[in-house]
Design goal:
One of its GO terms (cellular component) is nucleus. The chain has 84 residues and is mainly β. The chain contains 1 helix and 4 strands; from the N terminus they run ββββα. The longest helix is centred in the last third of the chain and has 8 residues. It binds zinc ion (2 copies).
Length: 84
């Protein structure tokens, strides 16, 4: 019963992720904080702007550009408002 490497592997760089530097990313996997950046613009991501598509991380802006705003309430434009 020997288990090697208790630390999970970062899907992006394939190196071990230790507790101090890990961040839950797309697919419920552990990523390095430094690795978890937007696939398109390389902006660093945190829980407030992290989006995912096919297990790849994107920021909200790029996600909206690439995949459309489905699932997100874009309140800023106000076009969804129909007050009567
Ligand atoms: Zn990594
Ligand atoms: Zn981005």
């Amino acid at each position: 019963m020997s288990k090697f490497g208790g630390a999970p592997k970062c899907p992006l760089c394939a190196k071990s992720v230790y507790a101090a530097e890990k961040k839950l990313g797309p697919g419920g996997k552990d990523y390095h904080i430094a690795c978890l950046v937007c696939t398109t613009c390389k902006k660093s991501l945190d829980s407030t702007n992290l989006c995912e598509n096919e297990n790849k991380p994107y920021c909200k802006a790029c996600y909206g550009k690439n995949f459309g705003p489905k699932g997100f309430g874009f309140a800023a434009g106000g076009s969804m408002m129909h007050t009567q």
